[in-house]
Amino acid sequence: MKVAVVGATGLVGTVMMEVLEERGFPVTEFLPVASERSVGKEIAFKGEKYQIIGLEEAVAQQPDVAIFSAGGSVSKEWAPKFAAAGTTVVDNSSAWRMEPGIKLVVPEVNADVLTPEDKIIANPNCSTIQMVVALAPLHKAFRIKRLVVSTYQSITGTGVKAVKQYNLERKGFKPGQDEMAYYYQIFENCIPHCDIFLENDYTKEEMKLVNETRKIMGDDSLRITSTTVRVPVQGGHSEAVNIEFEKPFDIKQVKQLLSAAPGIIVQDDPANKLYPMPLMAKNRDEVFVGRIRRDESIENGLNLWVVADNLRKGAATNAIQIAEYLAAKKWIGELVQA
Q: Which of these is catalytic: 139, 193, 194, 237?
């Protein structure tokens, strides 16, 4: 399997390489790809050194799969070029997510929508991924009518610059204007502003949760509203999810469904102070669900607390799980005879 990681020097790209190695993905030829300023530099993967190459050279080498985390503009321009060369692209940016005909995939939820003809596959937004993993088994059983979501999102979701800003502020330094990932101080602060504001006064991140959830769940009738908040945390994203179902439910059944669902670990024992936290989710691939309780203010209402490492399940791991699904179907790579 010839594998390219586009954006290999970035925060998510680095984690993608770690996950490829950890999960034993069958990489026989590795192509680290980055911007022109990084071309020629060395990068480590599976104990070996590789020279970073540019996008044109990567396309020419026709990898079996190219996993992108290089930003929307790069994906929009280069994903079709890789696809035209026969490469299957799994893209982590927002460039293709809502494009008609492009599949938006969380393997535990809707991998079955994929076909061998899909040459560009979109990886959803990090906060969407962890939420739909938790929602899918419940939607199937009780049918979701309405969702109210509040997120508490790690600074790592913004990238290296945000982590640098936080560390400078934590040490008592005031970052310069060009060192600020956020308009305001993030250390000891919460900023109710993820991504840019849109005409409806929601942020782009908030509307991603709305639109991407509907697309992944295959249900445009879902009523969803969200508020996304950036918090001074590095371990992962947390979400308070309020659900109104069409059908009545039993709390015990909810916990059983979540416990049996792939990719979920239920941590729900308030008496013993057991509940999900980003500190415990860091460097893990699972989605953690807890604080499972009935919303007593409405009929058929439920509250969940959902936590996951946004760089792993929220980005790198989900993308590689998509590639694993394609490889298992033998839609990418060649079967190597023993």
A: 237
Q: Tens digit of pLDDT for each residue in 299-337?
A: 999 999 999 999 999 999 999 999 999 999 999 986 433
pLDDT in tens, 156-207: 999 999 999 999 999 999 999 999 999 999 999 999 999 999 999 999 999 9
Question: Residue 181 pairs with which residues in a beta bridge?
Answer: none
Dist. CA 334–CA 338, nearest whole Å: 12
Q: Facing residues of 3 across strands?
A: 30, 65
190 has catalytic annotation: no
- Is 139 noted as a catalytic residue in this protein? no
Two tokens, residue 16: 């993608």
Q: Answer yes or no: are the C-beta atoms of 214 and 128 closer than 8 Å.
A: no
The domain covering 127-310 belongs, at the CATH homologous superfamily level, to: Dihydrodipicolinate Reductase; domain 2 (3.30.360.10)
Each domain of the chain, given as residue ranges in start order, spans 2-124+315-328, 127-310
